[in-house]
Amino acid sequence: MLDVTDFERARSHMVEMQIARRGISDRRLLESLREVPREAFVEEGFEEFAYEDSALPISEEQTISQPYIVARMIEAAGVKPLDRVLEVGAGSGYAAAVLGRMAGRVYAIERHASLAASASDRLDRLGYDNVVVRAGDGTQGWPEYAPFDAIVVSAGGPRIPDALKQQLAIGGKLVIPVGRGRASQSLVRVTRTGETDFEEEALEQVCFVPLIGEHGWQDDGEIVFEPAPWSDAEIAGLIGRCAEPLPAFDDAGFGALFDRFADAKVVLLGEATHGTTEFYQARAAITRHLIEKHGFTIVAVEADWPDAAAVDRHVRHRGPGAGGNEPPFG
Hints:
By secondary structure, the protein is α/β, with parallel strands linked by helices. Helix content is about 35%, strand content about 15%.
């Protein structure tokens, strides 16, 4: 089990490598992400994976979102220090905690009563006294506390609920995943510019659990994911937004880009690194960096036996094999 110092180091590493390097620049948001202990919001047994670049499962077949997506949505909402914020889909309470560090007051709704209760207890225990969580239908918002300066919806719906738009303050922003199917959505930002006027802006492709409720998907007892096919342009755009430019293999900066895996127990460089000479050069540079800079001690290789045997003899300072010094496969 990692200790407090390990988690703090992993948290700082996450903010630098997964968040800031992808273009999130809001200083207050980055500091909030450094302060909120994500390991306290994941399921027991998943703590060591809390700062990996991925969503993680929680109870009720829900997820705690990927850290970058949490940051992207909050930054898109433009949360300010005195804002009143509504979060729909509180889950474990992690995003509400980050919002609590940034806003004046946060109201979070979770449709699963068990998740709402555990999130509320967790937030209270950790001292987030400006965050309130309740169980309910998030697609209807929380009219008693409207208007809201920002609304963040952590689930994907078939359309933007009008109830949420009407609970925005003038100048307020609503960030919500919207899609034709349940398994792929476009992240949309809605800005209220007047009593009856709204502006909509599509930000990027995302994938969230379904937004269930009166103004979302219907809960028929079985959540069936029916993804609408993505167009070639959508796929290309998603790849383009997620891709990171790499320097030359012999540049020290190349290996440093993989420091994000420094605290991992196992790093797998598999099928995605098979191919041309460049793939093998990249894999060698990554492996060398992890060994030299981060103390990795074992390299397991799935390879042709003659080649692997030659490398094994060299690493263990053994003499040539039965074939003498002949290269593998002659």
